[in-house]
Amino acid sequence: MGQMLGPNFDSATPSTEPKRGRNAERVGKNGRRILPDDEVSAATRKMRMLRSLACGNKYEKLARATGAVLIAGVDEVGRGCLFGPVVAAAVILPLDTRIRGLRDSKQLLEEDRERLAVIVRERAIAVAVEEVDAETIDRVNIYQASRMAMAAAVMRLDPQPDHLLIDALRLDLPHAQTKIIYGDSLSISIAAASVVAKVYRDRRMCELDAEYPGYGLASHKGYATPEHRAALETLGPTALHRRSFTPVMQGELPWEDFVAEEGPEEQGAGIRV
User: How many domains does the chain have?
Assistant: First the structure.
């Protein structure tokens, strides 16, 4: 007999062990050879593993088996950025919601994220988004700032949830909660939060691009791309750069104070859905 999971159960990490035939010769739809896992980078192997995971309502059902009714998925975006806030979203979906193509926002094309974010907001019982700024990130560190943003998003939900499904960590909240490794690739509620947070933050970066020209924010959204690093070398950091992050610290030039006062993910390839 299987063990019944309690209201604060934690999930195990999905298995990443190689499957039989995983390194066998394969050919894509375009006729080109698909490199086996032992011939590609660790990042590519991880992306392939994440794409193989099924995003569904398994964890929502497990939470409901414990008596939960309003289950919120919680996720954040922007932890690895050099510029701007970390953004978190919390989403409560109705029972047994199905949204075709919904999965981790990093695995989706921009147009699909935009479309899915609209669907999530239309169908959700409640949605909340919160951000924590760069100054706070520098003061408390990015991990704690992410937790702050996620907790704030949860507390803004109306109605309040009675169970949280959270991507990879736990929050200092009284709610029953489940930490799910790779949660945004496994739970529809967390995936919904991931998409909502990503779309919100990307739009903020496009707005801020007009205020801080020359950094390419509208294209890289604040991540540490070669373009962004080169701009830091040339222009120095702005008031919204995370100065505790090494690439920003290295880019601090003598006129950084003037820039601050006067200044205006490994991204995976998207899946078309």
Answer: 2
Supply 137's token pair.
């990130």
**Residues with Cβ within 8 Å of residue 99, at least 6 apart in sequence:** 116, 119, 120, 123, 188, 192
Say which residue the tokens 């290295």 belong to: 250
In this structure, what CATH number is given to the domain that contains residue 128?
3.30.420.10
Q: Which two three-digit tokens encode residue 14?
A: 């999905």
**Structural domain includes residue 250:** yes
Cβ(254)–Cβ(235) below 8 Å: no
Tokens of 252: 């601090």
Q: Which of 179, 201, 223 is the last residue of a domain?
A: 201
pLDDT tens for 31-59 read: 665 666 666 577 777 677 777 788 999 99
Would 52 be classed as within a structural domain?
no
259/35 Cα distance (integer angstroms): 46
